[in-house]
Amino acid sequence: MTCKGICTRYKAQKPVGTGRYASGQKRCQICEIFIKWEGLWCPCCGYRLRTKPRNLKYKAKLRARVEADQLEAVAVKAAEVEEIELEPIAVKKSVKKAKTAKAKTTKAKTVKATIKKVAVTPVAI
To answer: What domain of life does the UniProt record list for this protein's source (predicted)?
Structure first.
C-alpha cells in the first residue's frame, strides 16, 4: 500500500525536552512521518507503526526515561499511601469522642497514645 495523505491529520510536532517515542508518538515507515495515534497500524496506509527507536543510543535513552518515570510514580504512590494511613486515625478520634463523658476520657487517652506511637515511628523517604 502507499500513503493516501490521511496521516497528515495526525502529524505530531516534535516535543521539547523529551523524545518522540517517550511522549507517545509513533512512526510510519511508509508515510515517513511521526503521528499521534493510539493504534498499532497506520490510519493512512495500514502498515505497522514503530513504537520504539531502532538506534541503540536512543533505545538506551528511552529505557532510562521509562525507568525514571516509574520511580517517580512509585514515590508519588508511596506519599499518597502515607496520607491515607494517617487520615483514619483522626476520623476514629472524632467518632470516639461523641460518646459518654466517662468513655470520652478513657478513649481519648488511647487515641492519643496511638497517635504518639504513629508519630514516633521513623518514616523512610
So the answer is: Archaea
